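hiii so my PI (J.) wants the whole complex modelled not just the main chain, which honestly fair. so below is everything: two entries, each one labled with what it is. i double checked the lines twice but i was tired so who knows lol
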Amino acid sequence: MYVAVKGGEAAIANAHRLLADRRRGDRALPSITIEQIVAQLGLAVDRVMAEASLYDRAIAALAIRQSRGDMIEAIFILRAYRTTLPRFGYSVPLETAEMQVERRVSATYKDLPGGQLLGPTFDYTHRLLDPSLLHDAPVDEALQREGGQEPIMRVADILAGEDLVEDDGALPEGHVPGDLTREPLEFPMPRDLRLQALARGDEGFLLSLGYSTQRGYARTHPFVGEVRIGEVEVELDMPELGFSVSLGRIQVTECQMIAQFKGSAKTPPQFTRGYGLVFGQSERKAMAMSLVDRALRAGEFGEDVVAPAQDEEFVISHSDNVQATGFVEHLKLPHYVDFQAELDLVRRMRREYEAARGDKTDSDIPEAAE
Amino acid sequence: MAPDGHQPHPGTGPERRRQAMGVLAKATRLELEQAWNGLPQRPEAVPVRGPETGLVMVRGRIGGGGAPFNLGEVTATRASVRLEGGTVGHGQSLGTDGEKARLAAIFDALLQLPEHAPTVERLLSKVSARIEAEDAQRIRETAATRVDFFTMVRGDD
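here's the output for the full assembly
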């Protein structure tokens, strides 16, 4: 028999009212605006967009405000929001080679066409707290320099000239890109579907897996061929017009990781590649993604699958933080009936255990007396 | 989907219209509103579709140039309008601003009418100039962060 228990309505309503109060905090302070979050906490906004797999800065900022800065909660809210909208279609694939570049660095070539462009980076800062940010001190405008019109050549194309690196990554002719928002996941999966899962995967999870490959759990000897950040055009086919039109630009981060090069009976020794592409400015995530992408290609290169980062089902099944938080956090919801059943079971087992021990003790005595 | 019954006038080939729609997509709502309010006479525009907000699944390419994969979605808003004469215009843009998409659709329709095309062209030049100036500034700011390598001669005497 199952008896439904109701209750807690008033408590829930009051808890949500309390949440709203705490979210607003000290009323003597001005309320933070969506525009301020977008402008001044931009990388938090970018992370929420990337892991929610939904690019919209204003809405991501709203979610951050609503979640009191809890990133996974904000990502969850955005995922829920996207389910309320119709799908217009699939964009024309982005041309990252034509990116309006704000940053591009290569760890493999010092002097390369387009140069090393540091852009707005935390690299080379000393990570010392900056007390000037305690106050609203005026900030200098960025410096400008002429002569930035040189084409920014892709590092992959430099190496490809010598045929020393594998191609960008082809799939069989006529392969329709998989879409995990439409079809349930099945393993093994093609690389396009893996990349979709990794692009929305939790940054911390992918970072740790990428790190594990560096520490020897599926080592691939990686180099950053290049990381580039900037804006790319999003174009959509308009069937009523018979051509594609631009919807505007989005910012993305791309990482080309160049890895080891054993070669096989069929392929001569050449560099292999891992690829990372992420919404917004998110270099760490793009790098981690490219390391994990490369590790997950173990089968393609005949490498032994010995480490967690190479295990496709393990990685892809656990990379989504909305799924992960849903299953972990559901444990705090009422499990009264489940627990009662287990409690009864443990009580019974304990009785049997004690009964058995009692018997044994009884039978031990005569044995001991022998 | 509404049939597109416009008669393109000679100066507006599909490529010109494609480019114009791309510029309108990048216009700010304020730019479009100002241009709209500046029209000597504002034509009647009936909605054919929307404005409606939805999602476009953005595709990337494996390795940057290989097979396409689905990267993630963007919000987008689109609208279609019909002017009194029957000319249909389409507007589309990233984000959720319905009024912006509606105004873009009106200007797309106006661009197809010889008597209105010059006004729309003026708007397009203004928006393009703003975007080019912003891009140029970005490029100069990025160029200032370019590393100039130099070699230090180290004596071993």
